Amino acid sequence: LGVSKKVKSMQMFRKGVESVAHGDRAGVCVTQFDPGLLERGIVCAPGSIHIAFGVIMDFNMIQYFKSDIKSKAKFHISLGHETVMAKVTLFSSPAKNEKSGGGFDFDREYQFDESYSKNSEKSDESDGEASLPRDRFVLLEFETAVPVLPECIVIGSKLDTDINANLCRLAFHGKALKTFTTKDFAKTDLPNLKIYKDKCKEGVVERASNEYEVIVKDLVKKETNVDLFTGLKVELSTGEPGVIEGSFGQSGKIKVRIMQGLKPDTFARVGGGKKKKGENTGFTEPVVVKLKFKRYIFDEKKKMIQL
Fold this sequence. Notes:
- By secondary structure, the protein is mainly beta.
- It is 6% helix and 40% strand.
């Protein structure tokens, strides 16, 4: 309801009391309030509980839940006395061999995860004894705003599963770590949440203009603004690093500067001039160019970031 009323009196077992504590059963008389408006809810001091439109929680999978938990899927979320639908976004600390410091922090970067399964933690452990378990989190975007207690227990379920099926419907649980109290938090708060996806684009070296410049095709589409890629680092499948200089012609090809020069073997493979149609250079495998970067999923500008 989100209303504030003055407490007129309190009773426990028909005796008037001045205070009640957590766990007590008490009758509370408040002024100018229709009891028919409230079936079940939370009574608290003004300002101690916030109405939330979204929550970040830590993630613990319930081992008896057999299905995978996928980002962008909807789950029934139970917290306090409420159960609402929410869209989930899964993310985790990016490096298992790096101490995460524990807990959630807006200043840290996190890796977007497509899904979690009951085998996720086992796969982390199999990476080696030196590996540290990743901190896993879930962003919940509620369909309906709910009151959220600080660090309350949150349970995610699939309550629409057939009740006659012999399946556990409880999927995950954790504590609420961060609440979003504004309706438009997706625009005001989420851009500050540094969850990224690893991206990789591949192209093929068409030819070498000289030992320090190659022409690459199929790395970007014809209609792509190549200026967005200018200055980004790439790597050839033969090992040479390079930097994108700009577009070449109008067909989506780009120029790549090889700062340290092409290896003799590479230069022999890509040739020193434009190949004639049907010409056989004696090499069957093309030289592939890889562009690796990351992009924050809540960045409206969709910037490409490289280390």
